[in-house]
Design a protein that fits this description.
Length: 252
């Protein structure tokens, strides 16, 4: 599978509008790792997960195949950003305590990526992958967003999106898997921030290119009607996490 670049043209808005993962997630993953020497955040995008890992690991190497995404990443003293595909990290063998993939595993050639994970992970190392789908607010807002997601953009999502909707449960995961607690992202956002976030959806980009129009203004009007009087509201994205101890092939 060749690198599918759906987000380089959206890199600025991606860095600005994507929600941040909870600190509790990274604390939990750090507790699973055999050491806290090095973490590899694969397909880091603009570094949202890498920054969270940096609070718990001495060193974080954050890779992405998109130079545009990396150029928008926030610097951190313990994070090294590198341009590299998922299946060829450039890291030394048996050097990584924790490998993470946030909201990107569905784009990978899994067989090649898992081979690379086995190569770079130290004994007892952990692979953790997670994804999230639509946020939740209240019935009226959720209905408006759901109609936009399915009714307007439904034909413009790639087949890989189904894997996200299934919480990665159907993806092969040939490692000794553990059972995680529940995690969620939360943010206090205005309608303008919601629209900025929706603007990072790859399906919206395809819709605009195919139809020659932007459906966001119509959604903005609908949101104005259902949002209520509060300037900002709490949004919640449930996270779907899978993690496992990296083992030799066939020893999962």
């Amino acid at each position: 599978m060749a690198f599918q670049d759906h987000f380089s043209s959206l890199a600025t808005d991606y860095a600005r509008y994507r929600p941040r993962y909870p600190e509790a997630l990274f604390r939990y993953l750090a507790g699973l790792a055999p050491r806290r020497s090095m973490a590899w955040d694969c397909a880091t995008g603009s570094g949202q997960a890498a920054l969270g890992l940096a609070e718990f690991f001495e060193r974080v190497v954050a890779t992405d195949a998109s130079d545009a995404q990396l150029s928008r990443a926030e610097p951190h003293a313990r994070v090294e950003y590198r341009a590299a595909p998922a299946e060829a990290s450039g890291l030394a063998a048996a050097s990584v305590d924790l490998v993470t993939v946030a909201q990107a595993l569905h784009w990978f050639d899994l067989e090649k990526f898992y081979t690379e994970v086995r190569r770079v992970a130290r004994p007892g190392g952990i692979l953790a992958v997670w994804t999230y789908a639509l946020f939740r607010c209240d019935r009226a807002v959720d209905a408006a967003i759901g109609d936009f997601y399915d009714g307007i953009l439904g034909g413009y999502w790639t087949p890989e999106r189904r894997l996200v909707e299934q919480g990665y449960r159907t993806l092969p995961f040939p490692f000794r898997e553990g059972k995680p607690p529940e995690f969620a992202m939360e943010a206090r956002w205005s309608p303008a921030q919601v629209l900025g976030y929706l603007g990072t959806w790859s399906a919206l980009k395809r819709y605009r290119e195919a139809q020659g129009r932007d459906p966001l203004p119509e959604l903005a009007q609908k949101l104005h009607t259902v949002w209520g009087k509060e300037e900002v509201r709490t949004l919640r994205w449930p996270l779907f996490l899978r993690w496992g101890v990296v083992t030799e092939e066939g020893d999962s």
